[in-house]
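SAMPLE LOG
Freezer: B-3
Tube label: C17
Construct: single chain, 368 aa
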Amino acid sequence: MSVRIDIRGLRPERVAIVPSPLAELGMALHALSEPGHHPGLQGWVTSVTARLDSHLADRMCEADFLWRTTFSDLFMPYAGIPGLSTLPRGTLAEELDLLDKLTDEQFVDAALEFTCVISYGSYQPLVLTDERVRRRALEVAASRGPQQVRFTQRLLDDPPSVRAWLRRFLEDCDEAFFAEVWSRLSHQLTADARHKTELLRHRGMAEALAAVSPVLSLDEAAGRIDVDKLIEGRTVTAGGGLLLVPTSLGWPHLSVLHRGGWQPVLHYPVGSPELASPPSVEQLTLRMTALAHPVRMRICRQLARSAYTTSELAQLHGMTAPEVSRHLAVLKKAGLITTRRRGRYVLHQLDVTRVARLGSDFLEGVLR
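STRUCTURE (predicted):
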């Protein structure tokens, strides 16, 4: 399985490697919301959480599914600007100005990615105009909980107010903790981007991609980049460019923005922290046996990012609910997933902390 980026006709000068303060703020919010994904950031997370204003912390929970269960493309608005060649800016304020330039249709479509209502790779921003898509968005949000329903309803009814709310929230996060983080990390990210750019210019695309991550490969004959991930996806640079954006807070996530009609972006981690020691031999044997099936690997990828019902997983994987239930039972017996009831829905989610103890290779695979 992989995400493929068609780069036929892409000129070398249209490939850019540039840090993004807004993308890094998105990763900071993700780490604060899902610290289990980032064991190496536990100290930083604890420090920020301890001094976070309670009002800002509450606001952080209002729409955390934009950065906790998914990494919303709203954190990379330059990719959606017409012309498909806009680069990240040097300041958060400048990138928030780019966010303001997205149309309401683009904004709502990207914000509702967590509902998976529309095929991500297709260019169909119909949710504001198609009543069927609108109803489906609300139905899926209902399975996620009342918070998502309220956000989705507000977003569909009044996009400008949500856009203003999000900008104010991100500006307040910058003042509260991110400005200090960015002043410390931006130099490292700039140096990494400069190094990768030198490789690209003097040694070619293949070597630059290998330096970014071993899961990236260039098929020069086919004119494409393959990203080894537990999902299928396709995108094309067409007449636009290709962006590579480094992140210091993002390991182990290597994200590929492949939204239809947007410029492709590779969001790659710089460095990787140490993980905890593995479990006992008996526990390891039981858990690795449970994870030996490729279908359960793919299910784990979904459950690492968000809680899903059995019926949702069945729909995503083209299986029957009983088939999914059998796989979930194996994972649950191994102690790798948790379940909770929300109204009439039973939600399943991967226990990321426990999976982390299986070692960094597996964790990186399911979170990539």
